[in-house]
Amino acid sequence: MDNWPILAWKLLDKKGTFPTFAWNNYGTSIMARPVTVTKEKILSAALDLVRSGGPSILTARNLCTRLGCGANAIFSSFGSIQGVRDAVREEARKLYRKRVGEGFLLNPPFKGFGMALIWFAMDEPHLFSMVMESQMQPDSFKEYIDSYVGFKAESLSAIAETFALQRNEAELLYYQLVLVALGLASTCTCGRSRLSIPQVSEILGKNVRAFLMVLHAGNDEREGFVPNAGGGPGGEVDSYVLMQALVGQNHLLQQLRAKPRYIQDEEWAELERMLRNSSDLTPESLRETHPDLTKGDIRTYILSHLQFSVSEQAILLGISPASVTKARQRLKAKLL
I need a labelling partner for 331 at 20 to 30 A (CA). Which of 72, 78, 168, 305 fits? Predict the structure, then answer.
């Protein structure tokens, strides 16, 4: 028995599989044909592992145990266990695109897409999580949705056909529904709630109808449902509430709002991040669409977006209020 490790190594065939043994009629063992493991079998077993327990249990040891083979069989086909994970993620994406894409066959097609996305998440929670796992930090939620959720072109076409919206309105509805669908999918996949398909249909339908009412209803009609009382300067309640929420969540903004002071160079990166989180426009997109904007212009835009007054901006920038007013006028002229 002391030679067992050496014997086992010698018996290991070139594909990394251990041969099976059979017994003949004389009671002595004979070596049967080794078990062959194809690339397709490895991928299928890996996919089943992820389905049952999530990406974390996809290890070389667990995969070898399920297949009854050595690690060499896996590494010769995929190079590494990371290669297996990448292949499983790609298979999950294919299944996701097939299943969710079939939602456009329902009526109305756009709502069917949202239903199919949530249905896939409920039916394949671990594969859905793998598909939606971001490999890098996106600059905005729109970039994330475009990269990982997809179906934007199909959705815009379905929206235009069903609701006769302009492209900019159709895009707003697309991102609105996807955000709601992702929230519902996350609720289901995290085990916090188990929604039924009729419940999902009702929630999505109400969200789509509510958004369409907002697009088509006049200001007077909206006021009847959501009074604009308590808004910020100019009555812009949405932006005012958003900025107040940001102030409450960010330590730097709390400091600057409570006691304005000159902003240090290293602190501007944090304020730029706040702009990305609260606006469709980012410093990068502003520079791309308006290459004539200076660093000072960008900073003026950020402070104005964060709703600092002229007198507060003067302190934050270390200039006079008159200079702030001129800077804002120049910025407005450049952006027109």
Answer: 168
